[in-house]
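Inputs:
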Amino acid sequence: MKTAARLPSLVLLITILFCMNGCQKNINIEGTTKNIALIVRMNNGYYWGSVKLGADAAANEFSVNVRCTAPEDEEDVEGQIRLVNSELDQKVDALILAASDYNALVEVTERASDMHIPVIIIDSEVNTDKINSYIATDNYSAGIKAGNQLIKILGGSGREAKVGIMNFVKGTRNAEQREEGLLKAISGHSGIKVVAKEYCSSDKKLAFELTQKMIRENSDISAIVALNAISSEGVAEAVSQMDLAGKVNIIAFDSTPNEIDYMEKGVIQVLITQNPFNMGYLSVKSAVEAINGTSISKYYDTGSEIINKDNMYLPENQRLLFPFIK
Amino acid sequence: MLGKRHFKKTLTKPFHKLFESLRVRSIQFFISSSIMLITLTAMLFVGLMLYSKFNKSAEQNAIISTRQVIDQVNLNLDYYLRSMMEISDSLNDLIGYKQDIDENRLVERMNVVLDTRKDIVSLCIFSRDGGIVAGSPSYKMKDVNITIQDWFSEPVNEPANLYFSSPHVQNIFESQHNWVVSLSREVTYYKDNKKKLGVLLVDMNFSSLDQLCQKARLGKKGYIYLVDPSGNIVYHPQQQLINAGLKSENVEEVMNHISGIYFDKFNGQNRMITIQTVNFCRWRIVGIAYMDEIVTTKKEIGVFIFWTFLFGTVFVIFISAFLSAKISQPIKALEKSMKKVEEGLLDINIDVKGEAEVAKLASTYKMMLTRIRSLMDQIVLEQESKRNAEFEVLQSQINPHFLYNTLNSVVRMVESGKKEDAITMITSLSKLFRISISRGRNIITIQEELEHANHYLTIQQIRYKNKFQFEIQSQDAVLQCKTIKLILQPIIENAIYHGIEHMVDDGYIKVTAEVSDGKLLLQVSDNGAGIRSEVLENILSVRPENREGRGVGVKNVHDRIQLYYGKEYGLEFESEVDVGTTVRIRLPYTAETVVREVRNEDSGKTA
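Outputs:
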């Protein structure tokens, strides 16, 4: 009789436990937010800020967590490898990487692939096929655009002109591709001669000094093409300080506030801008699709825009040039 | 070991009960199935009600909260735009006097406004040709043609209106790239005593508005964007995606609404679109909320209700099995013991505990059984005493002592030549025995019984040499009544041996038979020694040790009468020492006195 009296309370207890278990399950279903690691080349700068902004927009839209990290500076390849490894150790659901080096990051990229973690490479290529998607500006065609603008500024074909190239880091895939594109564009114009080429190692001060040296050595130089944001700023600063604005034309890459200032002052004539916001957005979107098993295209070109003083204030370019970055 | 078994028992017990309850047509099945049916129906009903109710309110809540967010944004935008208008109005008032403007005073005033309003980026008055008349802060102007910019050309083309620009990067000052919303209007001012036309510009920082719109989230994925009256998206959190063609909005549909809510399916997703139009600038605030987020709540509720229902069902099954078992188990136990009784096991112990009703039933049944048992015991006892009485009757039928004495008397009579007496005695003896035996019948008529008494008295009278006289009287009505045999003879014998024998005077014995108070009354009276009262008291209750003692036969008669006819019949003594004794025998009075014990007659036959 005593056991019989205990029976309903026993049943009640079991039922409550089951119910709680059920609730727990529900919570678990809610809590399976995917984690995506976004590793870029640098922690600061308008360019990477825009990438993050785009990534955040996508993270919101697709309800995923995006954790953005970067080494101290762009040349810290070891640091970036460490970051990638630590993210992989934490078993992220997908990896988005803007590689600092074409070859050095192959190993960690392949490691991610071996762990069956989807890998999305953005901005600059890594020398491996074991990736899910590569989302970047088509640097070669951006180079061609720069070349064509150069030809236009120099007054069309046939005219003799000496130009200099300010590249950034030797061995960086982007730099090489942009240079290739540029050289391809001007190759048909025998009048345009590349008289100097320097690597500034993405150092503004070095770029400044190298530009001064370049101009001193080639006093009749009529244009300098700077292949990334930092080298562009260095070149523009040197030209501006030497009071050669308008005489030494500058074709620059990206769109930092400084570059825009120089463009408004007439120091920089043309900016070839990329679309970092879209790059960030698309990388996260592709990562989510890869996690969900949807097939994604192996390559996506986020495009590049030609900005000059006349079109910079058009509504469609304002967002590109003046992003809201907190 | 014991604990383990106990544990196993508690575990298997409910299942055992569960299966037991599944037996159709048992009380247990009926109770558990009705409890289950009622409870589950109620649960299903409540569950469905709750589900639909919750769904409705979830949707309603989503609509309300979305609308609240949009209203909040609208309110804020309204506040910003209104404050811009107020500033613009106050500056317009200041320069509207028909006299030359005091530039210093104007700039001073502008500085005050800028100091107090951090969200105002710049205040400027331009002449029609684009030159600055007065402005704060005093940035260096760019070398650009501002007259072709929207904020300048629009109010010039439509002088009556205030013009609100879309958010844009202000392109007036060097090194300043602020995102602003511009409010511009055409103004008249006086300079050098000449009336001139110009443009008054108020620039408000857009980043605060941008943050406002960014923060206004509708669910996790939902967002807000702004459309100007001509259908251009003036603000979108993912403007660049739209520019790049990666994203698009169904602006055409939005333009059909001024405010309200509608639902659409866009790019494969169901969305709820809430529209509000801002005052002054007529921008539409478009809130996009994704239905799958609202449906998620629905799903959660559905899952929750499903689980609750499932476990409720399990719970109800167990509870109903338990309850029905608790109710029906005692009844079953009772039924089981009844079956045993049916099989003849009267001696079982009924120990059924349960609810009050069943317990009472059990105890009543128990009482009944006890009663049956005691009745049966009584019957056995009675049978036994009847057999004893029968035996004694048989004994008195052929009393050897009496026979010996009588025959001895006959011999003496024959020897002394009293031939007549001997004949009378032998005749009486033979008649006596004939009635005694009466062909084995146990029941005889009163007439026969009286005859038997008569013969007996005759024999004894001769033996005692006429020491006593006797008389037998009877009503005619009673003669054919039936009675068990040999009830008078032991009493008469008693009267002779104990009453008359020791008398000095002549004795007298009177036997009567009559109807009295609806009963048959036989009386045997003598005038003998009488019986002492202490003997008289115990004469019918105590069986004397000495079988030869007084009253053995008398008590036997009394017991036999009571066994046959019940407690209300029997013997009654009335006696006074030295005066005499009267014994009254009461028997039922019926024309054909029915024999109660048929079986007894049979046993009498065989004897």
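Remarks. Residues 544-548, 593-607 of chain B have pLDDT under 50 and may be disordered. The first helix of chain B runs from residue 2 to 21.
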